[in-house]
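In this section we walk through a basic example: taking a raw amino acid sequence and producing a predicted 3D structure, encoded as discrete structure tokens. The instruction is simple. Fold the sequence below.
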Amino acid sequence: MTDTPWFASWFDTSYYHKLYNHRSEEEAQAFIERLVDFLTLKPRVKVLDLACGKGRHARTLHALGLNVLGTDLSPQSIAFANKSAVDGLQFQVHDMREAIPNQSFDAVFNLFTSFGYFNSTTENQRVIDAVASMLKPNGFLVIDFLNAYRVIETLVPKEVIDREEICFNISREIREGKVYKHIRFSDAGQAHHFIEQVQLLTLGDFEHLLSQDFEILYTFGSYELDEFNPSSSRRLLIIAKRK
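The resulting token sequence is shown next.
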């Protein structure tokens, strides 16, 4: 047994990136361009890509003229992201539950369901409090999360995904307010089993988490910034302002 959290071990493997290598770079770029335009962020303002992975969103933010710091818990992801580091685009390993010393930002982006990974809901508040301490007054927090209602209604219990000669056997279940994804596969004769877990947080949960330091300005239900509909929207996008 190990005390290492699931996200610290799974996200730092090459298999995680292999399983999700189908993500659309074009969709991600269009989404970020739409967000920056909507927020009317001025050139060279400082922003944080919190849980940046390998840095695809951070690179687009920088290409749009922003000064970007990308952080992630995975050393492998940050090592990859650092290959594209330049002046105004930096990366570092960091736990989102902690504030980054001596840093302040005009906007913080938390994208692609990079929230709700913890066993305790109190850890969620730690993340929000850390973000609040780093955001300038009237700074923006953007959270891109799954739509819990739709996940519950459309859950696919089992599927098989082939990626680069590896057959990933996926099973999903909902219990204790979380969606669990079991990922089983073999490589080079060795069997592997990883588990993803994400809290099924609703808009009401986020309203509670953000109530002390933030005002929610907008909620959207897609990367095209369509109106949020709890029963049908694929995503829950929240734009909040630091009080």
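Looking at the output, two observations stand out. The first strand starts at residue 46 and ends at 50. Residues 151-196 form one domain. In the next section we compare this with other chains.
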